[in-house]
Amino acid sequence: MPINPQRMLADLRELRSLTSDEDGAQRVAWTPTWLKARTWFYEKLKALPVTQHLDAAGNNWVTLPGKSEKTLVLGSHLDSVPNGGWLDGALGVLCGLEILRGINEDYDGKPPFTVRLVDWADEEGARFGRSLFGSSAFAGTQTIGADRVRRDRDGVTLEDALQQCGVDVEKIGDASVERGDIAAYLELHIEQGPVLERLGLPLGVVLGTKGVERHAITFHGQEAHSGSTPMGDRRDALAAAAKLALEIRSIAGRHADAVCTMGSVKTFPGIVTAVVGRCEATLDQRDLNADVLAGMYADAKAASERFAAEERCTVEWSKIWNIEPIPFHPELIALCDEAVREVSGTSHHMPSGPLHDAAEVCRAGIPTVMMFVQSLRGISHNKIEDTRPEHLEMAALAFDRLARKTLGWMANA
């Protein structure tokens, strides 16, 4: 039977009313409100002939057994950032639920392949700074040693928070057992950016997630009195950093989809009467092409050394974190394109700048693709996050078509 996009919208609005306040969504992972959202979700499953369990990392798996154990997985996350939007993550989970309902009806509870829906645990990393927590455990890229000691702003460790939710941090790697028999993974998400709205398009096909290079950069100059030190005698570390902050815009501008962001700057001694002797900054660079990403890193490093010399300073770089670009499966991209065109009449291919659980699933060697739906004003992680209802309905119809096409592809894969 055709799915019911209006029912999906009703579910999303019900979840919003249950887990949001005047400041936005409050479904931060490992908190009572997040657990309330999951309990609400369990109630929605009772009408379906499915099994449900939590894996070792707290990921919530819902399984509709098929005639074959070969499995299609639909996934996203119910957790949000503090004061977040009503659609980020939740759309993918509740659209997946609606597709499970439709497949169950169509095949009288026994589809040709097993279909699973997963609500990944702590995609956002909002409380402890560890994004993609559950999906990285699934993929085998978890970092238990570093994660165990992470603390939130109140000093609570991630290990303790997990324990309160029934998860043993030492065993999260056991979540990898869920990878067995998975033939394909599909994820629907709001774009979280302005591209589709600017193009006047409701839906987009995601080519992959951009690689990330994230570094800490420290410029060393000389602290000096702001009143008695002539401008020509200064070794101003902030001046060198400021030049780099402007230069990264032109570095990114040489490539169509690249982005560079200097997101934080700290000055020392940080007082109004002193020339800055040390400036600590962070740089985040992203692109879907690994060669472009490497070139941008090299360009920024060379620029920082040039600006340091101009200001008679020195500069040091240290890596914070990086992840390679993750291209999605070409055949699933083609199926996604077909589904989007059939529903909306046109298609746009684009990379994802934000990371998603789909990237970790893809890193595990599982054929993967994502679909985007337009975000109004390009705003996300904010209480004003929104998408037109008609676009949400189109997304549900297109994602359902993608799921059905993928089941057909699995029969021949």
Number of DSSP strand runs: 17
Strand content: 15-25%
Distance between the termini: 25 Å
What count of helical segments does DSSP give? 12
- Largest sheet, strands/sense/barrel: 9 strands, mixed
Mean pLDDT: 97
Key traits:
single chain, 413 residues, alpha+beta, elongated
Give a structural overview.
- The protein is α+β, with helices and mostly antiparallel strands and 413 residues long.
- The chain has 12 helices and 17 strands.
- It is elongated.
- The chain starts with a helix and ends with a helix.
Structure at a glance:
With 413 residues, the protein is of the alpha+beta class. The chain contains 12 helices and 17 strands.
Write the layout of secondary structure elements.
Layout: H1 5-19, E1 20-21, E2 24-25, H2 32-44, E3 51-54, E4 60-64, E5 68-76, H3 90-106, E6 113-119, H4 133-139, H5 144-148, H6 158-164, E7 182-190, H7 195-199, E8 203-209, E9 211-220, E10 224-225, H8 237-253, E11 259-268, E12 274-275, E13 278-287, H9 290-310, E14 314-323, E15 326-327, H10 330-344, E16 349-352, H11 357-363, E17 368-373, H12 389-412
Parallel strand pairs: 5-6, 5-7, 7-17, 8-16
Antiparallel strand pairs: 1-2, 3-4, 4-6, 8-15, 8-17, 9-13, 9-14, 10-12, 11-13
Helix pairs in contact: 1-3, 1-12, 3-12, 4-11, 8-9, 10-12
